[in-house]
Structures are given as structure tokens and as C-alpha cells.
Automatic annotation (TrEMBL):
Signal peptide: none annotated. It holds the Pfam family FUR. Binds 1 zinc ion per subunit. This is Fur family ferric uptake transcriptional regulator. Its cofactor is Zn(2+). It comes from Gillisia mitskevichiae. It comes from the Bacteria. One of its GO terms (biological process) is negative regulation of DNA-templated transcription. PANTHER family: HYDROGEN PEROXIDE SENSITIVE REPRESSOR, ZINC UPTAKE REGULATION PROTEIN.
Length: 139
């Protein structure tokens, strides 16, 4: 985990408030992508609006990326340290387990560049593999 979260957030042009630091730490401790409801449950004394705005600020400044895993609920995960969320170089696979309903980033498995027809411009690529995760497969 990043040692000096304050400096990291400032480098990303984000003012490091107490709540932003807490949410960053929470996301860093998770092994799976996390929904707003999960974060809301972890910070039950905080307002949903504050949590959502923090996540949006993080997303807009390249601290987290969103994942549409097909469950109908947006999930959030911290970006890798040098990530720019660039369609050409930074996108990776996600895996959604049909048994435990968890989604994980497979950051070592990059999405290959897709050659679109002339005139098309990719703004986002989301590749989710669905199946049974290693944890559920052992049971």
C-alpha cells in the first residue's frame, strides 16, 4: 500500500480530507472490487452522498476505476500506481465469480489492443470473464 496517502492524493490533484484518506485505505485493504453499498456499510455513520462524491473524485483523477461486471451494480477498485486508465495500454481483465458474486481485477492480464474500423474511437473497454474463482473452486 502507498505509504504517504496525503502526498499521493495531492499528486493526483485531490485535497486529502480525513474521509478521502479513510476511503482510500479501505479500498487498498480490499482484495475484490467494491460497490458503493459495501463502502456505505463500512462507513455507516457517513452520508452516501459524501462517499459517492469521493469515489467520483477518485475516478475523475485516476485513483480508482469502475467495473461493470454485469451484476447491475458498479464496482470500484484502486488503479495501479502508474495507471492512466488509458484505453491503449492500461486496461486489464476482470473476473466475476458466479458463486460468491465477487469481482477481482486481473491486473497482470492486459486487454489486447483492439483494432476498430476507421472512424470509430474507443473511449472505454471492459472485459469481464465470468465463472468460478479459485476460492470457490476449492470448496
Amino acid at each position: 500500500m502507498i505509504k504517504n496517502i496525503d502526498n499521493f492524493l495531492e499528486q493526483k490533484k485531490i485535497r486529502p480530507t480525513a474521509m478521502r484518506i479513510l476511503i482510500f485505505k479501505y479500498l487498498a485493504e480490499q482484495n475484490v472490487a467494491t460497490s458503493l453499498t459495501d463502502i456505505e456499510n463500512a462507513f455507516d455513520k457517513s452520508e452516501r452522498t459524501t462517499l459517492y462524491r469521493t469515489l467520483k473524485t477518485f475516478e475523475e483523477n485516476g485513483v480508482v476505476h469502475t467495473i461493470d461486471d454485469g451484476s447491475g451494480v458498479t464496482k470500484y477498485a484502486l488503479c495501479e500506481e502508474n495507471c492512466r486508465c488509458d484505453v491503449e495500454s492500461d486496461l486489464h481483465l476482470h473476473f466475476h465469480c458466479s458463486q460468491c458474486n465477487e469481482t477481482v481485477c486481473l491486473t497482470n492480464h492486459k486487454i489486447p489492443q483492439i483494432n476498430l474500423p476507421e472512424g470509430y474511437l474507443a473511449e472505454d473497454v471492459n472485459l469481464v470473464v465470468k465463472g468460478i474463482c479459485e476460492k470457490c473452486n476449492r470448496i
